[in-house]
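Our preliminary data section would be incomplete without showing what the modeling component actually yields. Below, a chain of 155 amino acids is followed by its predicted structure, encoded as tokens that our downstream tools consume directly.
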Amino acid sequence: MSIHLGIRRPRKHRAVDAVTNLRAENHRLLTQVVGAGQTITALQHQLDNVRGKRAEAEQVVVCLSADLGDRTEERDQLLDEVVALRARLAPYLAADANANAITVPPSVRDTGDGADQATAPIDVRPLWEAIGPVVRTEGSADPAHHCLRPVKEAS
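Predicted structure:
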């Protein structure tokens, strides 16, 4: 004899449970479909924007290419004109150079002008000869002796 206390165990394969699970799955899938539709719509708008901007960019490229061709042609014409003008100007430059040629050798200097006087000769001797003997003051407590100083000769 079995004692049944009114405790029921849930049945594993009830049709109501299967229908409830299918409805939940259906709701989840419908939510995904609606979300996918919204995503597709947003992506379609972005694609339309990109196509519009691409068309504008292609138009700008065409305009810039035409402008570049015009500028290149203008530059080539101006370069040809510069070459022609240099050829016409060359005799004048040569005549000017001949008229203003420097005929004095570089070693001769005219110092007749007061503003163009020669400077005094530069004293070029070794440093030790120019400043005289140097006394080392290592170990001195006086801060002024921390550098080399020339010895003043008695006159």
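Strands lie at 134-135, 149-150. The chain is about 60% helix and 5% strand. Preliminary results of this kind motivate Aim 1 of the renewal.
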